[in-house]
Specification:
The structure is a homotetramer. By secondary structure, chain A is mostly helical. The first copy, chain A, has helices at 2-16, 22-45, 48-79, 83-87, 90-97, 100-104, 115-119, 123-130, 134-147, 149-174, 183-194, 207-223, 225-242.
């Protein structure tokens, strides 16, 4: 009897937490659809004319999703070999926080501000992708970004320094008349300009301000080359590390095609076990 | 007699479908000019003051183009060795859809909405380019984009996740007063900002909103480095593979290191004269 | 006597057309300053309140520049061994067109429209740089851009095709109410959005239009990776061609440091004549 | 006694100027926090409603920061082995200028315009980072940017030439009615457009202006590839040079190919153990 429960639990675990079996895959796909549908409903609920017309429908759907996600949460706790570890893991907390807001809305007024929390359900999609082959591609990207982290930090630090100094200069040059009402706002404008976003809600009016703004734009236009260069160099290296770093035992050459069996230079058999 | 028709048909086929002969090239160039002229006419027809002044002219030209394209369509069917295969091919359907709207406008009111379909004539230009040497360059680009497809998909997925979460946060922070009237609209704003487009039709007004917006901009400014890095790495690889396009005479594999003497797969001597 | 004139002419030529001698360098620097000053005066003349205050001064300066440039033009003709060749060369025509507008303004009313022509004086700066060491760097850039010309043409062609089709779709979806008054204007909006410029003078208002706009932005954000990738690959190649493509005569290896005397692998003397 | 003072001074120097010891690190961190806090206070002081509410608090804090920075400045002079060299060094002047404005505000009216100078305190952060391991990453970036300086100068020169010519053309085409009131303003608009910032405070209204604007945008979209390509190529090279940092024991040269056995310059065997 107890053995049955254990084996059931193990089976459930493979369905709920893994995606090797057909049942596991089906479970993941249904969950993916439910999460996306639930986030779309949360989004549409905030559109005024849709909320007016379909509020009861939205609420019913929201409860349906919450109950399904609650069931899933309980299943995960039940099938987990160490339930507490799951509950306090990152994804365990995300799972919990994605169902709490709806229950809270029964007791607390102003539940609108829990919307963000409900949208965090999207993070649960990350778990599903974690199980798939997408993760390998993600690894190359992540490794490249991690390797270039210090370089990007130095770069960002320099940019922020620049942005504060230029922002202060624009505040003095343009002043409140052109919308540069304070240094923080001027810094905001400088970021908007340097990143080439350019809303146009604040724009320099004086000739001197426009000259400085032109310099900021051209700088921003050139500066974007730096993170791009950093990431490209890191990705090239990260790619190379994934390829073949083998040395030919005969002629000591490197640079073989990934998966190569024979040396391109001397024809020597590279890897006996391959 | 029947032989004559067959040889005529083959000749027509070489003119209409190919571009090796002088006649075929002339046909392609005339067709290219007609397509461009027809799309320019469709565009200009939508400009109010031009439509008021020249509507009869536009209609006459449109009928002229339609009749010419209809003739071309019939010629293609006639000269095709397997007409049905052509009719249901991608370009066959594009050819058909590029003449239907004008005929439909005789019977259906509101033909304006078929404009899009008429603009799709542009797709037919793709066929002409398919025959030229431009296609090789296109292949390098396409191969690079295809090879980086999964990486770009992971990247886009992460960006979309981010965009939905940030959009929801901005909706809660800024609210309807600043134009963030719903989550979908806030998501739209986030995309406008992250991609550094920055219309300025919606812009954050609260200090907290502007701080979050600044983070989004700097993120967007850095994130653009990722697809650029991906494509550059893939293009470098794609270029390299085209560099040494030698086929191993023993195992028929390509993709050897430039200057390789031995096949990396079977160790066969690649180039005796090297 | 005639010999004297000839030698004078040759001397003048070395001053006016070359920059090896001290006199030639001084001439170039004075000319550079005059051109920049003249273009700045032309620019400032268009600022309403400056024109009102200083019009007589501007006109005097303009005549001074014109007379100096005329003298220079005559000197160039005189010192040129084949005057006609110079007059009808690219820079000869630029030199002529940079002095004509001021003389024409004596006879023709509406000389304001010759302003552009006066600004073309800037092109003469290109000649000065042509003589300096900057030209080498320019060559690497130009070679890289030329080599990637066909690829960029294919890329631009595809982008234009896309822009026309998306522009037409936006025209049908949004219509005149949101400012998409005609297909040409919608195409203009699509270019503004795809290139991430985003003026905001026209912006989509309908949900469907905003969804399509979001797709255009994300596409534009990703598409920018393509020209960057193309140019980076070409520049890497162009750089490499400038470096050492020598093969070691002893071990047949390539990839030596530029200017290397000895093979990094076997220590063999690479280039006897070096 | 004198020895004690000397050793004290040396100890102070290691705390104030270096960051190897625990005391030195603590000093740096406290200084970093003080600088950031002081700049944040300067920024917030410019926000109208905060200044109204908390002006006395801001002034007290400002005096507190100024006195602390003055103490630090005196300490630096005292502990410096050659005080005059420190006082007239770059960071010595920055230290001085970051305390002067507050003292000046006692005597001079209009101290608001010294704000910029107070923000320059941020530059002092650069000194702290100079002592940390971040500096290595910064070196790679700086070296890459320096190496590509001439190329970027040629590129920027060409862009500025283009910007002036296009700006003048837009002035003639659009005229004052669309906001292109002068050539300098038109040049400003061209920079705003070419860098894809796109405020939208000035936007072309005529069809011809919009066509030219479209060309500028597509150019700007493509041109951004050039600095990115330059920096990427330089960074790749700069990375490679750091990879093999071996010095030839015979001729003291660096920059060998990774894995090189012999010096490329003198043919000396580089690494016996390799």
């Amino acid at each position: 009897m107890k053995k049955d429960i254990l084996s059931n639990r193990r089976k459930l675990h493979s369905i709920v937490f893994e995606s090797e079996t057909t049942a596991g895959k089906t479970f993941d796909i249904i969950l993916l659809i439910l999460i996306l549908a639930s986030v779309i409903i949360v989004s549409l609920e905030t559109v005024t004319y849709l909320r007016r017309a379909y509020l009861p429908l939205f609420q019913k759907l929201e409860w349906a999703f919450t109950i399904l996600f609650t069931l899933e949460y309980l299943l995960r706790i039940y099938s987990s070999p160490r339930p507490l570890k799951y509950i306090f893991s990152f994804f365990g907390l995300v799972d919990l926080f994605s169902i709490i807001p709806t229950y809270l809305s029964l007791f607390v007024i102003g539940a609108q501000y829990f919307l963000i929390v409900r949208v965090l359900r999207l993070l649960r999609i990350a778990r599903i992708f974690k199980l798939t082959h997408f993760i390998n591609e993600g690894k190359v990207l992540t490794r490249a970004l991690q390797a270039s982290f210090t370089k990007i930090a130095v770069f960002l630090g320099t940019v922020l320094l620049l942005v504060v100094i230029i922002g202060s200069m624009m505040f003095v040059i343009e002043g409140a008349a052109s919308g540069f009402t304070s240094i923080p706002k001027s810094i905001y404008w400088t970021i908007v300009t340097l990143t080439t976003v350019g809303y146009g809600d604040i724009a320099p009016q004086t000739p001197l301000g426009q000259i400085l703004a032109s310099c900021v734009m051209i700088m921003g236009y050139g500066i974007i080359a730096v993170p791009t260069g950093i990431v490209t160099v890191e990705m090239t290296r990260s790619e190379k590390q994934l390829t073949n770093s083998e040395v030919c035992p005969n002629c000591q050459l490197v640079g073989h095609v990934p998966g190569a069996k024979y040396c391109y230079n001397c024809g020597y058999l590279l890897n006996e076990s391959a």
